[in-house]
Amino acid sequence: MKKKITVLGAGMVGRAIAADLSTHFEVTSTDLSAQNLEAIQASHGVKTRKVDFSSPKQIAQAVKGADLVIGAVPGFLGFKMLQTVIECGKNIVDISFFPEDAFALDKLARKHKVTAVVDCGVAPGMDNIILGYHYQRMKVERFLCLVGGLPVERNMPWQYKAPFSPVDVIEEYTRPARLVEGGKIVTKPALSEPEFLHFDKIGTLEAFNTDGLRTLLKFDIPDMAERTLRYPGHIDLMKTLREAGFFSDEVIDVKGAKIRPVDLAGKILFPQWKYEEGEEDFTVMRVIVEGTERDRKMRYTYNLYDRYNQATKTSSMARTTGYTATAAANLLLNGTYTTKGIIAPEALGTSEKCYHFMFEYLKARGVNYDVAVE
Q1: For position 50, what pLDDT does the model report?
Q2: Which domains, and CATH codes, for the chain?
Q3: If 0-12 CB within 10 Å is exposed, 13-18 middle and 19+ buried, where does residue 29 land?
Q4: Burial state string for 333-344 with b = 16 or more CB within 10 A and e = fewer than 16
Q5: Could you tell me the sign of the dihedral formed by the alpha carbons of 103, 106, 107, 109, in that order?
Q6: Fewer beta carbons under 10 A from the terminal one: N or C of the chain?
Q7: Which residues lie below 8 Å from residue 319, measured CB to CB, with a gap of 6+?
Q8: Residues forming a β-bridge with 292
Q9: Per-residue pLDDT band at 44 (split at 50, 70, 90)
Q10: 223, β-bridge pairs
């Protein structure tokens, strides 16, 4: 009998997750959007269920018969969703980029004997797994992750499209970025320290500081940073909107209506940042791990360049993020990884078996990481 998986969230990434898992498991895709559910049902014939993710009761009902849950909801709903799933005693792999500390739920997860792998996308996610692997095998002195997902065709003024909730993207432009410099955690403004970098097959992109290290801040490494990549010009535009107050979460009065500017901005930007059916995108990531291994200075550089898949009509960001989550889901379902509690992706990387499984799983789906060793 096939194991049952409930996928919470049927957006662009959630649909890719459901489609991938449906080849070997019985999958139920859930969402509040009838349009999203119709899309996954029409393309892959998976079961669907309408669920309001702000309702713990509806989430509990949706996951009741599942052997595993995948969390792919907007960040502002992520923490409460994760808590509900844990209280239901269900193992979960989550990609929801929520601001709260997932480890606040570690005691609860252990109590319910739940394995909850969090932040398990492309970044955070695969970069954590890479660092976890090398941290076990060398004295790491520097870690850098450069990552971005962009439309192949550049259109003004945004030069950007969002494969997930625009509100989550806006968080990257407002949340202060935590980095490690000289062994100390430092905080810098989002969008700070812009830098032009060249990437093969793409050309020049612009990098800036974002708060993506998250659980990696627990590592004892002198220098660490995550920087997001965009087409040149996008940063200045986002800075202008932020500084003008459009991304503020402080409630204002507009003709008697109480609104948060960030909600209005998201509402306006969503249709403009939404990918059209069949619109091509790419994902680029470069992860650098430097340090001392067996008394030798070593540098490992992982490069990812992935594009929209024409055959399956799947976006690159959905593939690179979603298939990382489905690879981890298989590790839990086949019993390879069984540790209980809140599990950061780097914990998977410490296991050589899990590390190689993740890369082989992605490679089988056309997501390839090239590794250079110096």
Answers
A1: 96
A2: 4-122+316-373 (3.40.50.720), 126-307 (3.30.360.10)
A3: buried
A4: beeebeeebbbb
A5: positive
A6: N
A7: 16, 283, 306, 309, 365, 366, 367
A8: 139, 297
A9: confident
A10: 142
Instruction: Name the DSSP letter for residue 110.
Output: H
Is residue 12 within 8 A of residue 74, CB to CB? The reply is no
Q: Is the pLDDT of residue 167 over 80?
A: no
For residue 164, name the pLDDT band (cuts at 50, 70, 90): confident
Nearest to 151 by CA among 42, 12, 18, 9: 12
Whole-number average pLDDT of the chain: 95
CA distance 123 to 285: 9
pLDDT of residue 168: 78
Among 268, 235, 261, 257, which residue's Cα sits nearest to residue 247?
261
Residue 155: is its pLDDT beyond 90? yes
Distance CA 89, CA 265 (A): 37
Structure tokens that stand for 168 in this block: 């989550």
Q: How far is CA 362 from the centre of its chain?
A: 15
pLDDT, average across residues 267-291 = 93
Whole-number pLDDT of residue 162: 86
DSSP-derived letter for residue 276 is: P
3-state secondary structure the chain: CCCEEEEECCCHHHHHHHHHHCCCCEEEEEECCHHHHHHHHHHHCCEEEECCCCCHHHHHHHHCCCCEEEECCCHHHHHHHHHHHHHCCCCEEECCCCCCCHHHHHHHHHHCCCEEECCCEECCEHHHHHHHHHHCCCEEEEEEEEEEEEECCCCCCCCCCCCCCHHHHHHHHHCCEEEEECCEEEEECCCCCCEEEEECCCEEEEEEECCCCHHHHHCCCCEEEEEEEECCCHHHHHHHHHHCCCCCCCCEEECCEEECHHHHHHHHHHHHHCCCCCCCEEEEEEEEEEEEECCEEEEEEEEEEEECECCCCECHHHHHHHHHHHHHHHHHHCCCCCCCEEECHHHHHCCHHHHHHHHHHHHHCCCCEEEEEC
230 sits in which H/E element = strand 223-230
For residue 133, give the H/E element and its range: helix 126-135
The residue whose two tokens read 């459901």 is: 18
